[in-house]
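User: Putative LysR-family transcriptioanl regulator, Salmonella enterica I:
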Amino acid sequence: MNLTIRQFRAFLAVADLRSFTAASKYLCITQGAVSGLINEMESQMEVSLFDRTSRVVKLSPDGEKFLPAAMRVVEEFQRAENYARDLKEIKKSLVRVVGAPLIACAFLPQIIHAFKRQHPHTHVQLIDKPMSQLQKSIMLGEADFGIGPERPLEPEIDKQTLFTTEIALYCHPDYRLHKKNGSLGKDSKRRADCRRQRIHSDDLRDRWRAH
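Assistant: Predicted structure for Putative LysR-family transcriptioanl regulator:
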């Protein structure tokens, strides 16, 4: 058995309008096409769906039993059509953004919310990925673009600086930077990296730079 949605729609139209002629006008097809769809349906089901003995077409007992199921089929098919149509529209206006965890959690939600107020028909998908996977996500087509700290780029990827931010170390003025254990004083690379950052303390800035 291979029933089609056209057969189901023809069945419901005839059942509702009680006329093959009226059903053909409603479906915008010929009366012969409606009759053919119903005949094919009855042949496959091996039942008579309509009582054609009277002047008015009406459902047979088997047709009455079949009607609720046929209505559900057409309703579900219509929902599927609507979903597919919506999916197509979403795909047209979908922007996929991949962000490093801190940025995805702290910055992007507010930015996306403001963007959607200005562009309500554009759908934004936020993808949270480790920084090491941002470029890979873009190259694999999982995201349209990414936002994260500046890193060396793959040749296929371009970058644009959006903003700069400061990283600060907060500590007590008596904290010794050159402690023997975990010393920053002995680690020239870490000391050089940290020297480029802003230090917040009452009197620690000059002491930090001295190291």
